């Protein structure tokens, strides 16, 4: 390197015809030597400190050059990303496969705190990456079912059922979902051995959602629920094909399957809470998008256990004989809650619901909401009897449970699946709405579902709220919130819910699902 600098300085001296003088010579060399301008000047004595500075600057330039090129390349490939409500800097680093510190550096962030709506620059990648732990490649017995060009993801999960939760791999592709146990676990019963391998075609899926649920040990479980319009049993599918096509178009669910994110990966390493949540979000979004875009008709669904939805309205449409699906059906929802180590709860005290009656009501609502907790939105004992305040409180909120206890101690109510529009013209809502009353002696409920005779679901004007109609409202709540009316109606074929047509309201509460 010394020769490089010597030659560089020599050439510059020759071109400029300059004489370089050094000040740090010995005293006996103060006299300036004669220099032949026709000869190339060369170094005889050089200051060591000056040389160290020159070498250091040269080394720094050599090191900085590729870094600057890298920075310039990344600067050209940055994209703007808007921060969502559940995003974190750590999660974004995983999602986009980039170092967390690098995101902070290119965005001039002094901490990892970010907020919803903030624009963050992210290095652009050729392919989108997903936050999942890669697992060792294994040959699948149903490998021939996969589309080799389909994009696929793999996750470590537990297949939740009423017999035995089984750990395995959930494989997602654009056309189907496969669950393969880590080991070929078998369960011996009195009739046969059951294997927990499952296959679900995207054509039989309506949508998927994820939940973050506290278990009995005080920890959080991360659950993905898949809503199905088919269960894969050939005789059942053939017999009810026409009805299932209609229900599929209406996004009606006849069965549901649950998968819980595993606590550890295949080598025993614990998953971080953030990773489990990000994975479940990815699974739910991937499945919902894939089933929405899938147009093929492939009969591949094979499920050892499902939670079959016993909604009376759908039961009328399908005319299901439970013997037809006995080898795939799960047990009632209460047992499935036990397998998930979780039971939905009321977040607040109620003068109308008991824990038992609440659970009975929850088993009658659409499957997508059956794992949600419920929070009290309005209570006339606390919030007063202002009709306008109540409508303001429940504005843009759905679904909801409205429950009443009258002065004769009758308890009844309604599940409303859509938003109540203030002073709307005519009836609103859909066929998921139903009336119910509570048998206090048996601590049970009776539901009255849509008969399809009319579409008079929910009515709201300045005089009050009406549910169901025919000649009269099935349930009407006066704007004073002090009394109401109940009559049989053709929308739900319900009996009178109170002793007399007019009843006085002792307690009234409105409950809504707790948002994740």
From TrEMBL:
Residues 79-122 form the LysM domain. This is Oxidation resistance protein 1. It is found in: Mitochondrion. The lineage of its organism: Eukaryota, Sar, Alveolata, Ciliophora, Intramacronucleata. Residues 351-514 form the TLDc domain. Transmembrane segments: none annotated. Keywords: Mitochondrion. It comes from the Eukaryota. Pfam families: LysM, TLD. InterPro entries: LysM, TLDc_dom.
């Amino acid at each position: 390197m010394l020769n490089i600098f010597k030659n560089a300085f020599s050439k510059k001296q020759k071109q400029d015809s300059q004489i370089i003088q050094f000040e740090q010579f010995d005293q006996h060399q103060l006299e300036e030597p004669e220099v032949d301008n026709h000869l190339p000047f060369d170094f005889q004595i050089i200051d060591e400190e000056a040389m160290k500075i020159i070498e250091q600057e040269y080394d720094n330039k050599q090191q900085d050059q590729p870094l600057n090129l890298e920075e310039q390349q990344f600067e050209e490939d940055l994209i703007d990303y808007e921060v969502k409500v559940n995003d974190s800097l750590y999660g974004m680093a995983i999602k986009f496969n980039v170092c967390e510190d690098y995101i902070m550096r290119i965005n001039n962030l002094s901490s990892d705190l970010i907020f919803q709506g903030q624009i963050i620059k992210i290095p652009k990648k050729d392919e989108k990456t997903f936050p999942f732990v890669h697992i060792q490649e294994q040959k699948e017995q149903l490998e021939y079912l996969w589309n080799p060009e389909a994009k696929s993801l793999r996750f470590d999960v537990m297949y939740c059922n009423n017999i035995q939760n089984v750990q395995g791999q959930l494989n997602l592709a654009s056309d189907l979902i496969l669950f393969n146990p880590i080991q070929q676990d078998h369960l011996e019963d009195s009739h046969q051995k059951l294997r927990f391998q499952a296959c679900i075609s995207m054509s039989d899926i309506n949508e998927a959602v994820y939940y973050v649920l506290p278990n009995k040990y005080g920890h959080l479980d991360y659950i993905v629920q898949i809503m199905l319009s088919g269960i894969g049993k050939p005789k059942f599918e053939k017999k009810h094909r026409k009805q299932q096509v209609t229900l599929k178009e209406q996004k009606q669910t006849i069965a549901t399957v649950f998968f819980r994110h595993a606590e550890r990966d295949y080598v025993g390493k614990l998953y971080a809470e953030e990773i489990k949540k990000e994975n479940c979000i990815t699974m739910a979004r991937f499945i919902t998008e894939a089933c929405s875009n899938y147009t093929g008709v492939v009969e591949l669904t094979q499920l050892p256990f499902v939670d079959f939805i016993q909604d009376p309205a759908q039961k009328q449409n399908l005319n299901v004989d439970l013997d037809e699906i006995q080898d795939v059906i799960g047990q009632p929802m209460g047992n499935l809650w036990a397998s998930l180590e979780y039971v939905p709860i009321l977040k607040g005290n109620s003068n109308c619901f008991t824990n038992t009656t609440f659970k009975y009501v929850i088993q009658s609502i659409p499957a997508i909401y059956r794992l949600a907790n419920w929070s009290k939105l309005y209570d006339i004992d606390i919030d007063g009897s202002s009709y306008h305040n109540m409508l303001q409180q429940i504005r843009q909120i759905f679904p909801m449970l409205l429950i009443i206890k009258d002065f004769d101690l009758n308890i009844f109510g309604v599940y409303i699946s859509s938003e109540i529009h203030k002073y709307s013209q005519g009836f609103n809502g859909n066929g998921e709405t139903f009336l119910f009353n509570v048998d206090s002696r048996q601590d049970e409920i009776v539901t009255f579902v849509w008969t399809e005779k009319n579409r008079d679901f929910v009515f709201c004007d300045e005089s009050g709220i009406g549910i169901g109609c025919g000649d009269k409202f099935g349930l009407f709540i006066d704007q004073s919130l002090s009394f109401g009316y109940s009559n049989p109606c053709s929308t739900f074929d319900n009996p009178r819910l109170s002793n007399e047509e007019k009843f006085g309201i002792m307690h009234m509460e409105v409950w809504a699902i707790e948002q994740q």
